[in-house]
Amino acid sequence: MVFIYGPIDLGGPSFRLLRILKGCDPSIPCVLFQAWVRQREVAISYEAISYVWGSPERQCQVLLNGTSFGVTKSLHEALRCLQLKDEDRVIWVDAICIDQSNEIERGHQVRHMSDVYKEAARVIYWLGPPSLLTDICLDGLELLQEETRQVATRSWTKEQWMTAWKSLKANDPRPPEFERQGLQELLDRSWFRRVWILQEVANSQAAIVSSGKRSVSARVFGLAPFLMDVMPRSHCQGILDMMPSSFRQSSWFSESRDLYTLLENFGGSESSEERDLVYALLGVSSDAVGAIQPNYQMDEQEVIRAVFHFLFRTHPDSTLGPFPPSIRMLCRRLTFFNELVLEMAATNEDDGDTIVAFNLHRRPYLTISAQTLHAAARNRRRGTHILQEILESLRTSSRE
């Protein structure tokens, strides 16, 4: 028997939740049911899982509402570890709670996904199955978490955390290199390269990092590279900075989160669907929420045009271009396209000064090419205004 999804209310913020029934049944019996976000509250407490799909092949099965349901090997491993022996567990997981074959529903759910993660009692960052080294790493962090649980650590500085860590390690006979290697292995997991986790992490109010049966709070895990003297890649450090903790608001997360900056920093993330490089960042961005709507009925070129016009304030019907052939190309060459827009806007005798002012105000570090200056000088109607905008931008940049 094939599992058939029932409809959900697409007129409001409705979504489905998954109840993992208690026990040790290897079939992992679950119940799928509908829920609603009403006035930013959900009637039932649930956890949301952030994980990597891995291979799209649904090689494994779970028992969903009494019917066999195919899931990926990665998700099956996660559900098996999340299943509790003595009590049911309610979670939200995209691969099951969203009818992936329904493009209209997918778009609706993506638009409300930030609320799903914000309203979750806790988000589980599932990094995958364990190894000996990752177990050693998480064991050490769990012990630090337990040792400091009765202390008011929310206002602690990183140096105070380091003091507590060194005190704990003073009596640990295991070489610290094992913990460092385990942490590096976790940081190298594909979870950190997946684009959707950006929205999932940014909207988490509380979270744990899990691998196998071991887990530790995101607050403590985010400190691990500092404590263990490990240098994460910049992309990876950006994600650690986003994790819920007292340090989140002192990181880049509280500053530049416009769509341009996000695409510039995270446009190289992994995704099985190119349009998701944009859609996954909408729930994180400070300026694009509501301006661009996730719509899986739009093809990639339509999404590129919508993003291009939003970023550079060109008119939707304008022939200004050329448009990049792919979203990844747009992300890789954002500076080039922005400078090209400036040059072409400088020739625009209708509203070129408005376009130039917008781009220079949002991105004052852009290079002003000689071609742009020459084009502005030849612009009879708007050239003076364009040159004034450029001079003001240069003055502002020099003061900063």
Automatic annotation (TrEMBL):
Alphabetized InterPro entries for the sequence: HET, HetReg/Transcr_Mod
Superkingdom: Eukaryota
Heterokaryon incompatibility domain sequence ranges: 46-200
Pfam family, one: HET
Record protein name field: Heterokaryon incompatibility protein-domain-containing protein
